[in-house]
Amino acid sequence: MMKNKYDIRIDSLPPYPKKLWEEILVLFLGLLETHKNFSFKNCTLTLLVVKDNDMISYNKEQMNAYGPTNILSFPENDSKTVFIGKAQSAIMKNRSSLGTLILSIDTLLREAYLYGQNPQTHAVRLLAHGLAHLLGYDHGKEMWELTDFLEDNFSRQEYSHTITPFWSFTHG
């Protein structure tokens, strides 16, 4: 694994390993810098991993929606510098803070079970989706392409996470 050159702040409920979340995000940021002309130097990204009861509160307070959701994205808009994407959509670039992702571990595990997916595969998909929102993409073709790019390239990378995967813990 490459040495982490990014400022990634993770607040995760124990026993879910922060190192796994960090490795996924570091690989994503590296892929975006290498292949998509983004720069994350001196940029902060925050990830909160919560349970459904907390996600319900965030979803109601921030989105005026009832119930849990899998991931919420709150981009920071502290720069006027923009990157023009393929569809000429303005995407904020070179910000000091990308923003905050809030991920519900309960919803992630429930959805992985319902979709018949490996929970890590689903976690990668949700984080890629949330990161695309932080970069200014909205639901549509460009966002799905970026999410697919991150997910496909992540699966080709080797990462060094060696502690017990988060989905193997008893959950309740």
From TrEMBL:
Cofactor stoichiometry and binding remark: Binds 1 zinc ion.
Enzyme class: hydrolase
Keyword annotations: Cytoplasm, Endonuclease, Hydrolase, Metal-binding, Nuclease, Ribosome biogenesis, rRNA processing, Zinc
EC number(s) from the headed UniProt entry: 3.1.-.-
Residues annotated to bind Zn(2+): 129, 133, 139
Cofactor: Zn(2+)
Keyword RNA-binding carried by entry: no
Compartment(s) where it occurs, according to its Swiss-Prot or TrEMBL record: Cytoplasm
Lineage top rank: taxon: Bacteria
Listed HAMAP family: Endoribonucl_YbeY
Function according to Swiss-Prot or TrEMBL: Single strand-specific metallo-endoribonuclease involved in late-stage 70S ribosome quality control and in maturation of the 3' terminus of the 16S rRNA.
NCBIfam families: rRNA maturation RNase YbeY (TIGR00043)
Protein family: Belongs to the endoribonuclease YbeY family.
Entry protein name: Endoribonuclease YbeY
Species: Taurinivorans muris
